[in-house]
Specification:
Layout: H1 2-21, H2 27-35, H3 38-47, E1 50-51, H4 80-98, E2 105-106, E3 113-114, H5 126-130, H6 136-161, H7 166-177, H8 180-184, H9 189-194, H10 197-206, H11 209-221, H12 225-241, H13 247-259, H14 261-270, H15 276-282, H16 290-301, H17 322-332, H18 339-356, H19 362-366, H20 381-401, H21 403-431, H22 435-457, H23 463-479, E4 485-486, H24 496-499, E5 509-512, H25 539-542, H26 565-569, E6 572-578, E7 587-593, E8 596-601, E9 608-622, E10 625-643, E11 648-652, E12 655-656, E13 660-662, E14 666-671, E15 674-682, H27 685-708
Parallel strand pairs: 5-6
Antiparallel strand pairs: 1-4, 2-3, 6-8, 7-8, 9-10, 10-14, 10-15, 11-12, 11-15, 13-14
């Protein structure tokens, strides 16, 4: 139960610190805020299970053979990115840091790719660092719980800043922490970043330099630059409308950029080397048509709409629940007080909802602006959910004062949802949504709303607290089952095929044939794979794809033909395939287990090999690179199958050695005759400069705070 213990300790520390230094919080509200995330994660927390889609690796060989042994049935295939990207990236960063290395290079994929420079491993996020105190499997459960807590707690704090009661603020907190977008993207970096949106809003409203600096730093380190852009834009809009002075936000922004230079500079430095920015420019997103907008709208207001990954499924629904929508409408109809905030958040909700739906002309206009021209702007749906949550908090106090208005809105909403359900029912069933699912979700939406209206109409004491309970029940029933709770024994087990792959000082690579052994999974097993499923990929490596793999524009690059010589050049020594695979020339069967076979490449080149010349090389891993012990008989050209990223540096017997490129994408160096030690280290200049700037900024900030104190 290490995840539960660590979560309680961290969440309690944050709440108590806020209570001591920012604004007092009632004891009941403290307990409620810490407990609410357990509506989603409680089962995993209290039973020691893993709250993450670690059941999905069992869809492919070799774990597929063992799915019955572990009682695994795939829960939600839509979470593919979490197990293929987020979990391996975090593992790679954790591995580097726990070994005392800077998390700069990910050797586990794509022949060496940027790790911290790709940002989404979030290696400098304080919460990703704290979680290294517990086992990696438990850290995933902790990460989900703390993200929910941060999103909810800071929403609660912002609602309190607006003057909402604690009970109403808790309702707003529940609406945002359990909104559809957060529930789905909970273990993506988008969820981690948007959890700090409310904190940024609190800091902007207070106009406190230190708090805003902390909020921006945490947002940057959360590891999703696109989300940072949306969050900062929202904060600027709120600051302008609320008439806040610009000096303090500017100063805080500058300091935040300086403190996070260790992450931002390497990111901007690697972008020109990467394939994806050009892809987005060449294939810009287009606005949604009427059918797509209808799908977005349906998934936002009808909890059953497009469920179970049907053709009508929406990847980031803006659901906050019928109760929150009714309370938000009640807030809009309120004439006093907090009218300015109500108008701002109502406008924000409408505008960001339309952008989140990719609706023209707003989506088209936004894509003409710098930064937004490369971003996936429909992530603004998070901002829409936050705006609805704040309106719900304002509306909760208004509904308590004038329950008849809320009751009328609730009745109208129930009728509207019933009519919409009747109208969409045939299309939903035809698309594959099961009728029992429609009935259950509709009941979860309408029954709690009706109960909330009745509680207020009867003026039941402490009705707002009871409504909070109804919101929690409603949102847990609607979106609480997106992520599975998996038996910890099934967390990437080392089945016989994987155990048969030897571990040695001499590096080598492994591939899966077709759908076998999904890329990036290699990181969890301490292996290396030339394939990868990455947010940013080296253009040089992508240009080699026709020689050895089948590229997928929106997914990983498949290996479908083991006879391609380029695989041998890339140091691919083993392949995992289904048992009916016939080994091509140069490959042999190393092991068979159930329906999977392990193949060995007898022609695989070593990681570093002599292409022109004579001698022997012995290669082994070193921090963020390789060490090559060379015994060269005559001056030789040495090829190293590491992608030639700009940050590589080479030394020959501690003297600088020039680097060149070979076979289009890989490193090459010229080694003179004799015995030498060659060190290859990935240490980008942007990281060195960024590290120095961040350290200097932290020291300067500490001096400023000490002087003020």
């Amino acid at each position: 139960m290490s995840a539960l213990i660590l979560y309680l300790a961290v969440a309690a520390a944050i709440v108590l610190a806020w209570h001591r230094f920012i604004r007092p919080i009632g004891t009941a509200a403290m307990i409620a805020m810490i407990a609410m995330p357990l509506c989603f994660t409680g089962r995993a927390m209290f039973t020691g299970r893993v709250y993450a889609p670690v059941d999905l690796p069992f869809v492919s060989a070799p774990l597929k053979d063992y799915a019955p042994d572990y009682g695994i049935a795939p829960h939600n295939a839509a979470l593919l990115d979490v197990f293929e990207e987020m979990i391996p990236w975090r593992f790679a960063a954790r591995e580097a840091i726990t070994r005392g290395r800077w998390p700069l290079l990910n050797q586990h994929q794509l022949c060496g790719s940027p790790l911290a420079g790709a940002v989404q491993s979030a290696p400098y996020d304080p919460f990703r660092l704290i979680v290294m105190l517990i086992p990696f499997a438990a850290s995933l459960t902790f990460g989900a719980a703390i993200t929910l807590f941060l999103a909810g707690f800071f929403t609660f704090a912002f609602a309190r800043e607006l003057g909402c009661s604690e009970e109403a603020s808790l309702i707003g907190a529940a609406a945002f922490m359990f909104c559809g977008a957060m529930a789905f993207f909970l273990e993506w970096m988008q969820g981690a970043a948007f959890a700090f949106l409310p904190l940024v809003m609190v800091a902007v409203r207070r106009g406190t330099f230190l708090l805003l600096t902390i909020a921006l730093v945490l947002t940057v380190f959360a590891g999703h630059p696109e989300s940072l852009c949306f969050i900062v834009t929202t904060g600027i809009a709120y600051g302008l409308v609320s008439g806040r002075r610009i000096g303090i936000p500017l100063a805080a922004g500058v300091f935040a950029l300086l403190i996070t230079a260790i992450q931002l500079l390497p990111f901007f430095a690697v972008l020109p080397e990467m394939y994806e920015p050009g892809l987005r420019r060449d294939h810009p997103r287009v606005s949604a048509d009427a059918k797509q907008i209808a799908i977005h709208a349906g998934s936002m207001f009808l909890p059953f709409y497009g469920r179970e990954q049907t053709a009508l499924w929406d990847v980031q629904p803006g659901r906050v629940g019928a109760i929150a929508f009714a309370l938000a409408a009640t807030a809009v109809g309120r004439r006093r007080p907090r009218r300015r905030e109500t108008i701002f958040f109502a406008t924000l909700a409408v505008v960001t909802t339309l952008i989140g739906w990719d609706a023209p002309p707003l989506a088209d206009l936004l894509r003409k602006l710098p930064l937004f021209d490369l971003a996936i702007n429909n992530r603004f749906i998070f901002v829409a959910c936050f705006a609805f949550a704040i309106l719900a908090a304002i509306g909760a106090d208004a509904a308590r004062e004038r329950p008849s208005i809320f009751a009328a809105i609730a009745v109208a909403l129930i009728i509207a949802l019933a009519i919409a359900t009747r109208h969409t029912w045939p299309a939903q069933v035809a698309a594959g949504v099961r009728a029992p699912m429609i009935k259950t979700m509709l009941l979860a939406d309408l029954l709690p709303l009706a109960c909330a209206a009745l509680l207020l109409a009867l003026r039941v004491p402490r009705a707002t607290i009871l409504i909070l309970g109804l919101v929690l029940v409603q949102r847990t029933m609607e979106d609480g089952a997106i992520y599975p709770s998996v038996d910890r024994r099934a967390f990437y087990p080392r089945v016989p095929i994987l155990a048969a792959i030897p571990h040695s000082d001499e590096p080598f690579r492994v591939v899966g044939l077709g759908d076998a052994f999904p890329p990036d999974t290699a990181a969890i097993y301490g292996l290396e794979d030339p394939r990868g499923y990455e947010a940013i990929t080296s253009k040089l490596l992508v240009e080699t794809y026709p020689h050895w793999c089948t590229p997928w524009r929106l997914a990983y690059n498949r290996v479908d033909d083991l006879s391609r010589p380029f695989l041998s050049l890339m140091n691919v020594r083993y392949a995992i395939a289904t048992a009916d695979t016939k080994p091509p020339d140069g490959w042999s069967v190393a092991m068979r287990d159930r329906n999977t076979v392990l193949l060995e490449n007898l022609r695989a080149k070593p990681r570093a090999f002599i292409e022109n010349g004579a001698g022997t090389l012995r290669t082994r891993h070193a921090p963020n690179g390789l060490v090559i012990d060379a015994d060269i008989q005559q001056a030789s050209s040495v090829v190293v199958s590491q992608v030639a990223l700009n940050g590589w540096r080479a030394t020959l017997d501690d003297h600088s050695l020039p680097l060149a490129r070979a076979h289009h994408a890989f490193l090459q160096l010229n080694v003179p005759a004799g015995r030498h030690r060659v060190r290859l280290t990935y240490m980008p200049r942007a990281f060195v400069i960024g590290r120095a700037i961040s350290l200097a900024a932290l020291l300067l900030l500490a001096l400023i705070l000490l002087r003020r104190r």
